[in-house]
Amino acid sequence: MPDKIEIAEGDITTLHVDAVVNAANEALAPGGGVCGAIHRAAGPEFADACAKLGGCATGEAKVTDGFGLPARYVIHTVGPVWGGGERGEGMLLANCYRNALTLAAEHDLASVAFPAISTGIYGFPPDRAALIAVRTVRETLPDVPGIARVVFCCFGAESRDLHQAALAATAPRG
């Protein structure tokens, strides 16, 4: 079976996938980084759709239409703010990826693109976050067989390299 996971460097708002994942804030309001870029690219109706969802808890996921994006849907997930690693941040980050994939499967989506959740303003160490992201996706894919393609869309070469290293480190042996 070929690997369903790809690593790409670029702008997540331009990807032609069924869903892009928004590294959202709890209010699902326009913000900075990936969240701000998705809100700008999706257009003004997007913010209205987000507001109707009533927010999102850390580690959970919710879905809206993609509006002006090439992606049909946006899956919103709220990553943890890094506090030194002693407050369950790793588990919460893993939940973001797991819950987003589960939600994608529930909506019969075959392709999903993730940013590097929590590694911007939320301060999660990028190397640790990449390993958690790739490991969680690998562990979750067997439970969501309809998902044929997962893209880690990295904003910059450093993030791309960290995700490629995580992909190699978590590759099935044998």
From TrEMBL:
It comes from the Bacteria. Pfam families: Macro. InterPro entries: Macro_dom, Macro_dom-like. GO terms for molecular function: O-acetyl-ADP-ribose deacetylase activity. SUPFAM superfamilies: Macro domain-like. Signal peptide: none annotated. Residues 1-171 form the Macro domain. Coiled coil: none annotated. This is RNase III inhibitor. It comes from Methyloceanibacter marginalis.
